[in-house]
Amino acid sequence: MADSTQATRFHIEKVASSIGDFCRRMYWRASVHDASKFTPVEKGPLDALKAIIEADGPAPHGTDEARRRTAMLSEMLVHHYANNDHHIEHYGDEGIAGMSLLSLTEMFCDWRAANLDRDAGEPMNLSYEKYKIEPSLAQILRNTAAELGWAVK
Predict the structure, then answer these.
(1) What angle do CA 16, 18, 23 make, to 5 degrees?
(2) DSSP-assigned beta bridge partners for residue 152
(3) pLDDT tens across 108-123, in order?
(4) Calpha distance 99→27 (Å, rounded)
(5) Are 112 and 142 in contact (CB under 8 A)?
(6) d(CA 22, CA 114)
(7) Which residue, of 10, 70, 129, 142, is most buried by count of CB atoms within 10 Å of its CB?
(8) pTM for the whole thing?
(9) What's the Cα-to-Cα distance from 81 to each of 63, 68, 90, 102, 129, rounded to whole Å?
């Protein structure tokens, strides 16, 4: 009688190896995440913004003050997006469709970290209509956040 045990174990080992490859790539991405923020073109404006936040407090999202502060970073953001493929803006007109699963995963984790930095205790906001994320992908992101125990809105 035929026995599939060896073939199944071999398949499981190949899947484990592939997952390991993916995880090694993600760990590398984590180690260099946002390294461009240490370059002068990015660090200067970020330091200036931090000084404003320390002096005046954070600006609520969507306010004129928040828009003014974001505008201070316009040149910095051009450089940042050009040098960091985990941002949808990196891909121009192609948008999110230009991303790999690695860059998408890093972006998803970056959104979580930004949420934790900004809104401690608030659910992660996954309603990014400006990025024109297809409903099925948006649902996958929500499902993943739920599986990880990350609250979302």
Answers:
(1) 90
(2) 124
(3) 999 999 888 776 667 7
(4) 18
(5) no
(6) 23
(7) 142
(8) 0.89
(9) 23, 19, 5, 16, 19
Sole residue written with tokens 């192609």: 94
The tokens 């499902």 sit on which residue?
143
Mention every residue, 6+ apart, whose C-beta is less than 8 A from residue 17: none
pLDDT at 78: 97
Helix H or strand E segment including 65? helix 64-72
**Residue 124, beta-bridge partner list:** 152
Close Cβ partners of 47 (under 8 Å, ≥ 6 residues apart):
none
Is residue 109 within 8 A of residue 126, CB to CB? The reply is no
Q: pLDDT by residue (tens digit) across 99-109?
A: 999 999 999 99
Integer CA distances (angstroms), 96 to 55, 71, 78, 109, in order:
36, 23, 17, 15
Tokens of residue 44, six digits: 């200067």
